[in-house]
Amino acid sequence: MKQNNKINAYELRRFIKIILFLFAILISIITLLLSQRLVNKIAAEESKKMSIWADAERILSDPNSEGDLGFHLSIVQANETIPAILVSESGRIIQYVNLGEETVKPSKQELLVYINEFNLENKPIDIPIDENTTYKVYFGKSSVLKQLEYYPLVVLAIVALFVLVSYFAFSYSTRSEQNQVWVGLAKETAHQLGTPISSLMGWVECIDNNIIPDNAGEEMRKDVDRLKIITERFSKIGSEPVLELLVMTEIVERSLLYMKNRISSKTDLSWELPSNKLQAYVNENLLNWVIENLIKNSVDAMDGVGSIQCKMMDFPGKIYIDITDTGKGIPRNQMKDIFKPGFTSKKRGWGLGLSLAKRIIEDYHKGQIFVKESRPNSKTTIRIILNQTQ
How many angstroms separate the Cα of 336 from the Cα of each of 277, 333, 372? Predict the structure, then answer.
């Protein structure tokens, strides 16, 4: 078969990290542009307001002014946010507004500091009083404008914190998942190798004691073959397995017969297979591993006492395999989690069997595996769907 072009898990995680970083940069750029645009707009509006305020001050300061002086006075009094200082031509401070708390009168030195700051922030506005006299209005930024100038920095800090926390959380989750997989794989390997190795050690002891039954060679060959099967199974986890066109009813029946002779007599294992020969491209070794894992999980869910039924059904283009047990069931909020690496409800479990089963069925065979139904202390059905070949 051709190599699968699908992005592997490592590349997918790397892609997500890049997307997360680019998304943060995009948010930062948009925030800066919009904030700067808003700041510039408000600054221009404040400059216009101060021009009107300065003109009103000019009219009020001119003893020869005529017209509605109350209107101009209201303009002057309406400024409650923009700090401003009116200075005479000789440098005498005539008036100041919005320099802080009204109850605290600033000293002359403090007013001079304000004037220097305002001169750096905005160009002073000239107020011609008469032909020989010109006042100046120094004005600064309102409190709202100052807050808006700091707003982008706050947003950037929040975005940076979000990206940092997300990155570390994602990295920790990835490392944790990898650790669970490696630990689980090591324990699963030891578990798989345990039975044939123990059997071979028993045969070695028989040989040392010169006790050699007639079927010793055949049984040892079975154990060696079992070790070969286990080696082949684990070697295919990281590579693309070879799929062959096989009769599914025969494969499933052989696997169930193998398990029936190795589970407790208190567990009733039965099956219902269609009479017609359903064919599919599969790897028999890996598919047997899936069925063995599902049967073992069912036995554990029933504490070794109950019934397990396997039913194969023929649908157009599909083969359904349902494995149902009478165990304690799976909570609805855990139905998807049971296939994740490291998830287990067993005290001594390592949560790898169903994760491997999902990879074998979905990644290698392009099928589906999921919890079809589960009722507490009644029944649980896990369904496998494979593509049928006519």
Answer: 32, 7, 11
